[in-house]
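Hi everyone, sorry if this is the wrong subforum. Our group has a chain we'd like a structural model of before ordering constructs, and none of us has done structure prediction before. Sequence below.
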Amino acid sequence: YARTLAAAADGIHGANPQARVAIGGVARISDTKFTDAVLAADPSLPAKIDISTIHLRTSARATAMLVDRWRRYFTSHGIDGPLWLTEFGYPADTAFQFDSKFRGGESAQAAFLEATMPGIVGAGAEMMFITQRDWGSGTFASEGILSTTDPLPANPTVRRKPAFEVIKRAAKSLVPVALPTPPGT
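Answer:
Right subforum, don't worry. Here is the predicted structure as tokens:
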């Protein structure tokens, strides 16, 4: 992965110096072994990465702490760009709601997002990608803020979950952070 990412970053920056390159999202949020190995495999890699990314699925209590930990981790390894949550969500299906303080369906999903997003932004996340619609089956299938049928028919019925309104309010109230201009532009 390190060789592929380094080569891709060189090609991307060579073709467009204003483009930004992101490291693949860390999914095992408390384990740095994989990322340690990637960064150790190519010492030039941190200078080629413009955006750090993580996937955040944890208890509400741990969200801001983990964002802060990963932000500091990437900075300590020479990656100074913004930190993005390329996967962030919480299930609306009670069967998969793992945080005991946030159980009870769609209203618990909305409450979880409302409770965690300010701390996540305060801990240094500059962008969050939240699942738009439900799809498939399993643990993450109900994380969407829109409810639809799966697979999507030609004219799908879409229903906004309570979490949709939470995201809408957060988009208006959380302070947006300007993305840095890549070096040399």
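For your construct planning: The two ends are 27 Å apart (CA to CA). Helices lie at 2-15, 33-41, 45-48, 60-76, 106-122, 162-173.
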